[in-house]
UniProtKB/TrEMBL annotation:
It comes from Paenibacillus cucumis (ex Kampfer et al. 2016). The chain crosses the membrane at residues 81-100. Keywords: Membrane, Transmembrane, Transmembrane helix. It comes from the Bacteria. This is Acetyl-CoA acetyltransferase.
Length: 101
C-alpha cells in the first residue's frame, strides 16, 4: 500500500481587489517615471508613516526608489565609515518627493 504525499491546505488570508490593485500599480508607475526624471537630484522624501529622508536619487527600479541619504545632524558622514549609504524606499509608500536646491 503506497502512501500519497500529504498536501498542506492553503487558505487565502488577504487578496487585493482589482480596483485597489490597479490604483497601486498606477501610483507606482507614475512615481517610477517621476523619480527616473530626477536621478542625481537632491530631494526630501516622506513616506506614509511620516518618516522623512534627505538625499540624492540614485535610481528607481521595480517599484523601489534608491536614495543616497544625507548624514543626519550629529552623525558622521556615512561614507567615512562604510561608503555611501543607499536607502531603498518602496514607491507606493511615498507621499511627497520635494526637490531641494
Amino acid at each position: 500500500m503506497s502512501e500519497s504525499p500529504s498536501t498542506p491546505t492553503t487558505r487565502v488570508v488577504y487578496q487585493a481587489n482589482q480596483p485597489m490593485l490597479q490604483s497601486v500599480q498606477n501610483v507606482r508607475n507614475m512615481l517610477h517615471h517621476t523619480a527616473r526624471q530626477h536621478i542625481g537630484k537632491k530631494v526630501q522624501v516622506q513616506n506614509i508613516d511620516g518618516q522623512v529622508w534627505e538625499g540624492v536619487i540614485i535610481s528607481a527600479d521595480r517599484g523601489i526608489l534608491y536614495l543616497q541619504v544625507t548624514p543626519m545632524h550629529g552623525y558622521p558622514e556615512p561614507r567615512a565609515l562604510f561608503g555611501p549609504t543607499i536607502l531603498p524606499l518602496v514607491l507606493y509608500e511615498l507621499l511627497v518627493i520635494t526637490l531641494l536646491m
